[in-house]
Amino acid sequence: MNDSSFWNTFKQQFKKIFEPFWHWLCAKWRRFQIWRWLLVAFLSIFLVASVYLVYIAKTTDVSGLRSALQQSTEVYDDKNQKAGFLYSQKGTWVSKDEMSKNVSNAVLSSEDRNFYHEYGFSVKGLGRAAWLLVKNKLTGANYISGGGSTLTQQLVKNAFLSQEQTFSRKAKEIFIAMQVENDYSKDDILTMYLNNAYFGNGVWGVEDAAQKYFGVHASQLSVPQSATLAGMLSNPGQYNPIDNPQKSRMKRNVVLQTMVENKKITSAEAKEYQATGIVLNDTYQYRSGYKYPYYFDAVINEATKDYGLTEAEIMNKGYKIYTSLNQNQQAKMQSSFADPSLFPSAASDGTKAQAGSIAIDPNTGGVSAVVGGRSGSHVFRGYNRGTGLIRSPGSTIKPLAVYTPAIESGYHYDSKVEDKLQPYGKNDYTPHNWDDQYAGEMRMYQALALSKNTSAVWLLNKIGVQKGFRSVEKFGIPLDKSDENLSLALGGLKKGVSPYQMASAYTAFANSGVRKDPHFITKIVDSEGKTVVDNTRIKSKHVMSKRVAKQMTSMMMDVYNNGTGQSAKPYGYTIAGKTGSTESTSAENGNGDDNDKWYIGYTPDVVVATWIGFDSTKYSIANVGTNAGSALFKSEMEGILPYTAQTSFDTKSASTRYNESVSGQGEGSSKSWDSVQKAGRDLRDKIDQGASGLKDKASSAAERGKQYLDSILGR
């Protein structure tokens, strides 16, 4: 009784307080016609949403849907020859006439009975989906739990949209489905759907599914076989007969019953089919077009990074991608990487050494070949050491940071440079030669060929670190401000470089001082023949003069003739370039062996950059000679060079030029040059004592004097 009295009192008090507010609200509601405003707001939102969805539908390129689904994305080489095709969610395309009628009967009975009578979407299906959405919202689930999609909507979802189950995606799906219905007949839509549907176990399309599960073509599928495939569409993982035979049979029998309800078979036939088991026969053979995996990976990466395409678009929209690939060079490079005898020995725990290599045409900047790891280690769009590895370049940076700016500053290939163990700066930075041998003084071309660290640092100190820093950047190598110190001469960079970057940098030497932007893709054409990417006009940069490039090539020829690259020189060919290595500071054996080996070689037709080492810096390369990677590089070059124009250098090696100058040939030239060079050295000595601002001018004057004598005497 007390409780009843309390609640009555509470209701009276609540009514007393709330009733005036309710009367006020009703008066305002009538006065300002709130219902009308709410209706206007609702209609406005509906109008805006409709306009947006119509815009989405109209701007979606459904006209090319059939051709995009029918064709695989193909990759073409530098001669416009087909090189392969990319992985895709596509099976073997067959027309509707090449499919058994049983397939369409089973699929339409179980998935969309009103397919031929609806306009892309089902009102009943939408009502069911809306109810499920409300139900899931009330239970805290932010997705549509299924149902409501017609075959056209399922086709649209797979071809254009993500797999997320949200109301916004469902709305887009409906409007695009209506646009598809405008452009294609019902038979075309059904054909596209059946060729694009997923049937589990990596199989797409009804033709490949028929071969995978029953060993027949799509045209030969029986009623129970067709019902089995139709039952898999809602959940291929759960209902495919290989992984779940019992569930697959139960689902097949459900589909057979729907075919009875749809009057495609009789009850007697259904009972007969339901009593039979599922007999499997796998005759499907996967045909991979991913012939050059690391190259194709790089093509996809460039398309997504530089041209705004998604991986799904590239793989599935039937593009023709034209590239700078040279199939012969690529095949030879892959063949070298498949030979384990060309690699250093494994670490004590069995970890294998790795490598990455890339070849670039210096005349176009196009990448002709790339391999990013040992044979058998490729993972789709995984680690590509030819393009993505970042390591210290070691001595391969010397031509970029030291010798090129030195020649530009007035030094000559046979200028004398110091080779002494000496400290520099306040921190007493003291570079050592890799072999701890010091000659005191030698010619510049010799210091480069023998990779003398002391000479490189001495020379960078003479010309100025800032010049070396700017020179490296001109070659397209990104640097950090902290790299502006004397260790730059030996590859001491904060971040490091990739074989891709180094090969691109060296193309300037091979192409008379001009560096073309490196690239894989030259053009992309869509499935209807429209060019969507045109990269045929390649940007170029003038890095150095033709004279400097020629003199640098002359010096770098000696690297492989009688320098550090002798063991890597390809038999029967003349190349120029540079080798490099980085000393281990963290390897487990602690013996100062090399972490990385670099080999960069070029002719006027191709530049090849190869890195060899371990992925982890805790290992080092304890082997020397051919087992340290030179054999791999030599094998690559001997395979690649026959598939170039085999253009000869327009200069002799620096050692040959020098020997000729001091012999009977060009003796007058040598004596004349010695006088000019002595005058230049005297000037430089005076400049070092107090007039440093005139140093470059004096060196340039000496160089011009030598050029004049060269032109007269033919040296």
Automatic annotation (TrEMBL):
Residues 358-605 form the Penicillin-binding protein transpeptidase domain. The keyword Transferase applies. Residues 656-675 have a biased composition (Polar residues). It is an enzyme of class 2 (transferase). The chain crosses the membrane at residues 37-57. Residues 87-259 form the Glycosyl transferase family domain. Its EC number is 2.4.1.129. Pfam families: Transgly (PF00912), Transpeptidase (PF00905). GO terms for biological process: cell wall organization; peptidoglycan biosynthetic process; proteolysis; regulation of cell shape. In the N-terminal section; belongs to the glycosyltransferase 51 family. This is Multimodular transpeptidase-transglycosylase. The lineage of its organism: Bacteria, Bacillati, Bacillota, Bacilli, Lactobacillales.
